[in-house]
Each structure stands twice: as C-alpha cells, then as structure tokens.
Amino acid sequence: MNAVPATVLVQSESFIYVLYIVAFSLFIQGLRGLAGPTTAVRGNRTAAVGMAIAVIATLLNPGEGNWGLIALGVALGVAVGVPAARGVKMTAMPQMVALFNGVGGGAVALISWVEFRNYGSTYGSRTVYVGGELGGVIVHVGAVPTYVAIFSVFAAIVGSISFWGSNIAFGKLQEIIPGRPISLGAAQQAVNLVLLVLAVAAGIDLIAGAHSELLFIGMLVLAALLGNALVLPIGGADMPVVISLLNAFTGLSAAATGMALNNPALIVAGMLVGASGSILTKLMANAMNRSIPAIVAGGFGGGGAIEGASGAGEHAGTVRTTSAADAAIQLAYASRVVIVPGYGMAVAQAQHAVRELTKELEDRGVEVSYAIHPVAGRMPGHMNVLLAEADVPYDQLKEMDEANPEFQRTDVSLVIGANDVTNPAAKNNASSPIYGMPILEVADSRSVIVIKRSMNPGFAGIENELYYDPKTSMLFGDAKTAVSEIAAELAHL
Amino acid sequence: MIIATILTTNLAILVLAGFVGFVVISKVPNTLHTPLMSGTNAIHGIVLVGALLLLGLPGLDDLSKALLVIAVAFGTINIVGGFLVTDRMLEMFKTRPKPAKDDKDEHDHEHGDGGAK
C-alpha cells in the first residue's frame, strides 16, 4: 500500500461520485431483469445492491454527521417497513403500493422544506452562501443558484401532491374512505385549477426571493389540498391509472430533488421511476380508452352512472341462472376453458379456489388458460400476482391481445368477478360510456358462465349485455364459494 | 460558468435517464407490472440519500433535524419494504411446476388435497 491513507481515497469526491454511477447502473440493470419472470428475482436483488452502494457512498461523505439521528430514522423505517412487507396479503398489494408511493413523495416534500429552511434566505439573491456542501459535490459559488430553488420548489409541490394523493388512494383501497367518487361536481376542475395556480404562484414568489417560511408552508398546504382534490373524485376501477400516475409523480419529484442536491443517483433513480409510472399510466388509460386528463377530472362516476341507470330498464332480456352442479358438468365436458378473472376474485380472495378448480379440470384433460385484461383489479398486474400466489404457471396467463383470437375456439369462458372488461357494448354500442374500450371478447366463445355476486352493474354503472346473451348463464354468489362448489361438484362427477 | 456546467451536466443525465427508463420499462411484460410498481417504490427510496446528505449540513436547527429524521424513516420504509415485498412477489412467479412436460416427472402430484370429497 502507498502512503495515502485509505480513508482519503474512499472519502474523495470522485470516489463517491463513481459509487453513485455504479449504483444507478445497477438500478438500470436490475430493471432490465424485470423483462421476464425468470430473471426478475435477480433483477430486484441487483437493484437492492445498487441501493446499498448509494447509501454507503452517501455515508462516506466527509461532511456527514448526526449519526444518532440517522440511526433513529433508519430504525423507525425498518420497524415499519419490514413487518409491512412481510405481512401484507397479495390482495392488499394496491394499498401497499399506494402507501409506499406516498411516503416517497412525503420524504421529498420534507427534504425540500429543510432545504428552504437552510438555504432559502439566498433564493433569488446574490447573497454569499456560507452553508457548506450541497449534496455530495461542493458547489463553489457565492449564492445558491436559482435552478436549485426551482427544482426544490417543484419537488416540494409534486411530492406533497403525491403524498396526500397516495394517502387518499390508500384510504379508498383499504375502504377507510368510500371508494365511490367524492367530488364537488362541476366546480371540481375549477377548484383544482385554482389550487394549482396558487401553489405555483407561491413557488415562483419563493424562487424570486420571498424569504417567508410561512409562504413555503402555505405552498405545501395548497399542494396537499390539490392532492386530496385530485384523488377523492376518482372511483374504484380508475385506481390502476391513479396509482400509476402517483408513482410517476413520486419518481419525478425525486429526480427534481436530485437536481437540487446535485446527486446523480437521485436523478437517475427518480427518472427511472418517473418513466415507469408514466408508461404504466399510459397503458392503463389506453386499456380503458380514456384520456389521462379525463380520468383525473373524475369523469365516469357522474354521466356514466346516469346513462346506465336509465338504460337498465330497457333490458327486458332474460337472464339465465345456473347452479354449481350444472356449471361443473358444462366445464367437465369442455375441451377448452378460458378463465377471466376480475376484481371480484381479489375481493373474495378466490385465487386458490380458482387454482384448485383449474387442477380438477386439467386432470380431466381440459385445456385451461386465463385471459387477463390490463385494468382487471385495482393496479397494473394485480390479477397476475394473485394467480402467481396460487401457483398458476405464468405461461397460462394470456394478455388481452393474445387471448382474444382464442375465444372463438373456446368451449366455455368462466368469468369470475369481472364485468366492464367483458361488456360487448364497448364494441357494439356507440352510445355506451365505455364504447371503444378494448375488451376481452368472451362473447365469441361457445358458452359463457359468469360468477357474480348480484346483477348490480359494475364500476361504470352500465348494464352488461353479455349477461342477456342466450349462451351466457349466471352463477350468483361469492366468487370463492361458487368456485369451490364447482370444484367439489367436479370431484363427484 | 461553473453553475452552467453543473446544471447542464445534470440536465443531460436527467434526459438520458428518462430515455433509458422508457426503453427498459417498455420491455416489462404485463404479468410483472405489480412487481414493477413495488420495485420502483423501492428505487424511489433513493430519497433516503437526499435526507442523509442534508443531515450532514452544519448548523441544522431542531425542526430541520426532526423533519429529516422523518424523511430518513420514509426513505428507509421505501427501500426495505419495497425490495422485500417485491422479492416476495417475484419468488411466487419463480417457484412453479414446469408446465406440461415435467408433470410426468415424479414431483407435483396433487398438492393440497384438503377441500373437496
């Protein structure tokens, strides 16, 4: 070894910066692993290693201090995070993800607040900045540059929206808050706009040099109100879009924090999350044939429900009901069965019963697959996780584009707790509120069995024409009970 | 001049990371979208780094310290909770009987006989 002490090397700016580069490379490599189920576990662990390196790099910073407080914060985080992650049920994943989005956004908003408390007095001025280091790299200039203030304020607003919006989404999914849209009606959009304009105006004032902490707190509160106002009017089935959007917000706010703190790991990680959230938001909105602004404006609940209600009377068609025993016979003599799961399966926690039924059918030589609509459930990929939990092989799960051509050669489609995503009105009825939304074309199969709790219309409040189709039979009841009964009947055949 | 250099360099990183993100995330199949979300929850736990950096600033007052302790706790929840829950989920996708062909091997006879009969 040479004369330079090791501590000097590892605590040098360049070494720390290189560690950040290693860290974000591992994030990217880890996310690449998520391209397939076989490489995904390793990918997640790779990203975790990257995170450990980023944290260690930060702690190597010569200026680092307040070790006791760091230990306290980490201990609190571990005490909450580990049991939550270990104990959460797969059916409760949407809530969990909403909560995790929220704490991320909250952390960003708090960081911005502390930045303001400590350098805010130099925003918008050329006052000499005598702080110390800004992030991992020393900024050798007099005043805190304006761009730091801009990114910090952006992070504060978006982080605060994400924190409050996510908490509301969590409350709705956990059913602490009613899932139905809660809104101010027509005034909602105007109120949202006013809140946004006021928050941005406060932010601009701060950047321009209004050295008022009260104004900063006011800005956080306005953003918080906006977060509430954005998510409260959004109902159950729009949740996949909202959760994805909040995910994107948290990512972008983290990237902005990275810009303010001049930290490459934060910038890259934040942008990766921002990109992920944005892509998912777009996919979910496309799968509902609705624009993101329309969902954020909280469209469906109002107009759709009224139209649906008036349309309900028109359907004088008869609904055929069936029993578990008849359904079992119908399934047993099929050669190809497609199962279409929806939120009802998640609510009833029926995934294990569904798997058992599949086994019974496969033992009889019936070919079984699952058709998954992108917005089935309450978050992207919700059904896939539940079925994976029940040990359904993932190659049995077909995406919409892959599943639709197959319905024509399907003997029985078994719809379990799915509704709007199977409604032929989306294809046939131009006046339907869901017209144009891509659906699973179960009506193409030779017969359809629908397991549903009641004839109540789904989230969109629209009658499902599928139920009046002569080849459809309805099996009313809780998804888990009904599926178990069919499986039991099959075993007796 | 120096400001412009740091800012423009960071902007370049920001933009490039966005493009890389779009390319990489586009390859994630629908099946893995829930693990993707919880995995990205863990990755935005990187805000922990931001909170840690600020805790190194000299002369923080008590309110700043309290806010940062909460931020550290939030970031830690994201990191440990996010990676753990994602790992749990992905393990379920991994441990599965190989489809069709392997069924004839000795493993995987009726598991879980409880229920029917």
3D structure, described in words:
The complex is a heterodimer of chains A (493) and B (117). Chain A is an alpha/beta fold and 493 residues long. Chain A folds into 3 domains: 1-87; 91-296; 317-492, TPP-binding domain (Rossmann fold), CATH 3.40.50. Chain A has helices spanning 6-10, 13-33, 37-60, 67-87, 93-119, 146-173, 187-207, 213-231, 239-261, 264-287, 292-296, 300-314, 324-332, 343-347, 351-363, 382-389, 400-403, 425-428, 479-492; strands at 336-341, 367-372, 397-399, 412-416, 447-452, 472-476. In chain A, strand 2, helix 16 (382-389) and strand 3 (397-399) form a beta-alpha-beta unit. In chain A, helix 2 (13-33) runs parallel beside helix 10 and helix 6 packs antiparallel against helix 7. The radius of gyration of chain A is 26 Å and the shape is globular. Chain A starts with 5 loop residues before the first helix and ends with a helix. Residues 127-132, 135-141 and 300-314 of chain A have low confidence and may be disordered. Chain B has 117 residues and is mainly alpha-helical. Chain B has one domain (2-96). Chains A and B meet through helix 2, helix 3, helix 4, helix 5 and helix 9 of A and helix 1, helix 2, helix 3 and helix 4 of B.
